[in-house]
Amino acid sequence: MTTGGQGSAGTGDVTRRLEAIVLAGGSGSRFGGAKLTAPWRGGFLIDGALAAAFASPARTVTVATGADGDVERVAAAFAEPRGQTPRLRLIYAPEHAQGLSATLRAAIAALPADASGAYLFLGDMPDVPASVLAPLAQALEAGALAAAPVCGGRRGHPVLFCAALFPLLAGLTGDEGAREVLKGLGDRLALVPTDDPGVLTDIDTPQELKDREG
């Protein structure tokens, strides 16, 4: 199922109870450590993911931390001057060293019980455009189990999952994230076209950060 809806998100029950997750538990080993708190465009690398998460129609933004102890401080400092502190929820993923899925499990477990769905943002993707967020929510409102942006034929982030998929996400292991869950959805995965490559751009090494900082 492919959708390209524009404008603000719908006003249905699903949209009113969305949450956002920012995965920020990794060690950044390929980067040399402390990747998400590396300097970036006058702030820190994670700021881009935080900005996108707060721009979403989510009620709260749960930042799941782990290896980098400075992430909580940086996230709080980002939220406060923007008036977003009431929406920010900081949690620690105690099993983060087991891989991305462990951080995701901790975040899912921390979501409000009445959540209808959750955006999944990756902390090392700083250029996600706000323009894709409302169409993703509209896709869930229309009956999709999950929705993701697509640019140049490649599926990107963030992915928006309905609550019915939370048990599957909570059962993931290793470092593969939610890819396996998405594979099984067929046409219940809505693909939202975009021309913005920010849905694909992540930072793995100091050289990539330098090359893409402009």
The class by helix and strand makeup works out as alpha/beta
Count of helical segments? 8
- Overall form: globular
- Which segments are poorly predicted (pLDDT under 50) over 5 or more consecutive residues? 1-11
Helix content: 25-40%
Strand segment count: 10
What is the string of helix and strand elements?
HEEEHEHEHEHEEEHHEH
Measure the end-to-end span.
35 Å
Radius of gyration, in Å, reads: 16 Å
Mean pLDDT: 91
Strand content: 15-25%
Major β-sheet profile: 8 strands, mixed
Q: How would you describe the overall organization of this protein?
A:
- By secondary structure, the protein is α/β, with parallel strands linked by helices.
- It is 28% helix and 21% strand.
- It contains eight helices and ten strands.
- Strands 1, 4, 5, 6, 7, 8, 9 and 10 form an eight-stranded mixed β-sheet that branches. The chain has a two-stranded antiparallel sheet with strand order 2-3.
- The protein is globular and about 40 Å long.
- The protein starts with 12 loop residues before the first helix and ends with a helix.
- The model is unreliable at 1-11 (pLDDT under 50).
